[in-house]
Every structure is written in C-alpha cells, then in structure tokens.
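User: Show me a protein chain along with its predicted structure.
Assistant: Here is one chain, sequence first, then structure tokens.
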Amino acid sequence: MEDWKKYQELGLDLYRKGKFEESIDAYKKSLELNEDLESYKFIGNSLMVLGRNEDAVVEYKKCIEISENWYFYKALGWALLGSNRLKEAENAYRKSLCLHQEHESYLGLGLTLNNLSRYEEAINAYRMSLGLQEGWRAYQELGLTLNSLSRYIEARDMFSKSLSIIESNKEKETVNTSFVKVGLSKSLEGMQLFEEALKVFFDASDPDEKEWDCIHSIGRKLVNNSNYDLAIRYFSLATKRYTNIYETEAALVWAIIKSGRSSEYQNYISNLVISEKWDLIDFYLNGINHDIDHIYDKESARYMMYKLNKVKCLNSRDAVRYAAINEISLKDGLIMEFGVHKGDSIRLIANSLTNQVIHGFDSFYGLPEDYVSFYRKGAFSTEGNLPLVPSNVQLHQGWFNKTLPLFLKNNKVKYSSLIHIDCDLYSSTKTVLSLLNNTIVPGSIIIFDEYFNGVGWKENEFKAFQEYVEEYGVTYEYIFYSRIRASNVVVRITDKK
C-alpha cells in the first residue's frame, strides 16, 4: 500500500475514535504525499468538530476546487454559518441545493435566513427540509422562528412534533430535549397557559440549567399578576431540581416577600438560617432592593447589599439609559458608545440628544475574542454592515485600539460628557477606559451595560473599571442600576487625582 494511503487510513481511524487533532495531522501527512479529496474533507470535518470554523472553510473550499459536489457546498455552508458569515453561507447552501435537493441543506439555509431576520423565508426553508425528511431539529428551529413572530399555537405544535420524534426514537442519536422544552414552554407562556408552561420542565428527565431562565420568567409574570401560590410552588420545586443555581432560592425568597405572606413561610426562612445562607437572609431581612427579581449569585447579593442599597433601581436597560442622559451636567462634551451592534441604544441616545453629535465605535464584525461560556469570537457580527442611525450619529468602524486614538487626536473636545460601554469584554473595556482617561473628568457619566449580576461579571466590565479606578486614582458614585440579570449601571466620576 502506498504511504499516503496508510496515513489516510490512520486519519480515518483516529477520526472515528474522536482524536481529531491527531486525525488532522495524519491527513496532512497524506496530503504532503498526494493531494486527495477525502483528506481535505476529513480535515474540514475534524476542524468543524473542534469549533475551528474559519479553518474548516479553507478546507472545504479546497474540496470544491477539486469537485463541485453538493456535499462540499453544504459543508461549506455549515462552516460559514458557524463563522457568522451569513450571506456567504446562504450562497453556499443555495449552490448545494441547485445540485441536489437535500434536507440538511434546507435546514442550514433556514438557520442562516433566520439569523438574517428573513423569517418567512426561513420558515419556507424549514418546511422544505421537513418535506424531504422529518427531523426533530427542523421542527425545533421552525418552532423557534414561529415563537419570534408570536405565532405561538403553530410553534407549540412544532415543538410537540420535535419532542415526539425524539421520544419515539425515530432518530437514534441521543438528544438533549431541554432546548425543545424551553421553546415549547415559551409557546405556552405566549398563549397565557402558565401552569402548562411550567409543567413542561418538571417531569422525569434530568434537569438542565437552560430550563431555569424560562421558569424564572414565567414565575416573575405570575408574581406580577398576584398569582403568588403558583409562583411560590414552582420556585420551591425549582430549588430542589436545580440545586446548583443560587438564583432559584433568591427567586423563591423574592416571591415570598412580594406575596406579603411571610408568616406562612417561617419554616423555610428558619431553614435558611440553619443552612447559614446569610446572603439570602440579608436579602429577606435587611433591605436589599426587593424590586430585584434576578440575583445571579451570592457575590451579586452582597454587592447590592453593601454598594448599591441606596442607589436607585430601575426596571430596564433603557430606563437606566434615559436616566443617565438626564444626569449629563458637562455640556458640549463627547458623547460616545462602544459596542453599537444593530444600533438600538445609540438611536435612543441620539433621539434624546438631537442637538449633539453621538459617536459610535464598533468593528461590526463581532467580538474579538470569546466572552463567557456561550458567546464565541465573532458573536454580534453584522458582517461589516452598518446600522441605520439618526443624522446626528457618526459611526467609526474598526477595532477600538485603532479607531479611538485617531478620533481623539483629530477631535478638539477634550472631555467626555457621556460614555456608554457595551463591549462586554474585559479587554475591550480596559482599552476604552485607558484611551479615554484624559477625557474622563469629574462630572463624566459612564454607563456599563453588563456590569454585574450575570455570568462572568467579576471578570469583565466590572473588573476593567475597578482596575481603572485604582490605577488612575478615580473617585466615583453609582447613581442608577437595573433590576434585571446582567445589570447595567451608571456611574458619575466625582474626583480624579
């Protein structure tokens, strides 16, 4: 047997054993001896499994140069979709479908169109996929799109079909049903069937933390509608089902407080004392803002208790933004946003300050690195497309470390009136604060969009600001924060050394 074939067989064996890095090395050695379509294909497949989508794009394009096969266009579509290169992904899927009508290509096309906000086209693509072959994933994605259009009854039926296929084992692969159940629950919630929506999660299946956000959302609505018994019952069940989530007990304590019937739950409160859950006891007894319905972790509870207890708490991110705008005291200073994305918040600012120029900074190619556990590099990309903004907005496209120094060099205004930091990452926030330091003066208002009370909060915007304060001798005060998870906060600079 020729040596290149030996390396190719070794690569296939390693691939089947899940040793993808070693498989790639074997296939590369095969390619050094002989250029072969199969080697490029399996290198691409291995890279996809490893989450290296951009590298996989390169390999699949090499496959297409050798053979314009529908499979390679489909694989290229998945790699481009994973890289958030949506228009290229759409083209790849359509080329695949021109060569061969196949259900997975329609599924990928549907996902791509959905991400491009072309929902009706996405629905048609999912239905085409299902017409060729029924599958739980296509029903699930169709349900999600219908939910986003508030077509809850249709969505419920799609999620039910998805679960039916999974549970009847028509597809042999092991599937985590939590995502499907979350979708079904949101459909039922949209239909105002709250108890049915909650029951979806409390069955014999293993608990999944993804479910909790949905349960919490429904429970909050029940409390706000004064349906305390149902909310407390399911929050209580959640504390037993999701034992690793601090927020379940915080939500139960909050519901008890809001019910005004604390005397009925003295046994539960006593058990908190016995278990030495002092942060929850503080929440219950000592005046942490009882309008807070999300307390992500005990550190957030402590921070609220000792740093934010006298700070005004508002209902939403936008309410915090409006309040910050009304606090501007430095007239004719710079007003800037870092992290524009689709332009929602910069439009709010610009429409509130129509006589001033608002500067928005963004690469429009997404995050430059991974953020917490579920937002990967490239998340929030608009593929370089700039959003529609009011005429008093100037957009500066590029990475902050490139665009901001040039902007400051050419701008005559030497202080900042309002800075909106919505760039999520520690590294990006640190870059912005360091570069803007000379413009940050007493009276400057800074909004941090994901400051605390959420996943990874101590390691990102919060950490960057606290380091900045220490490094530059800054004194500040908190003036607003929001009651939601991943709370945004507003600070006012009061002094600088």
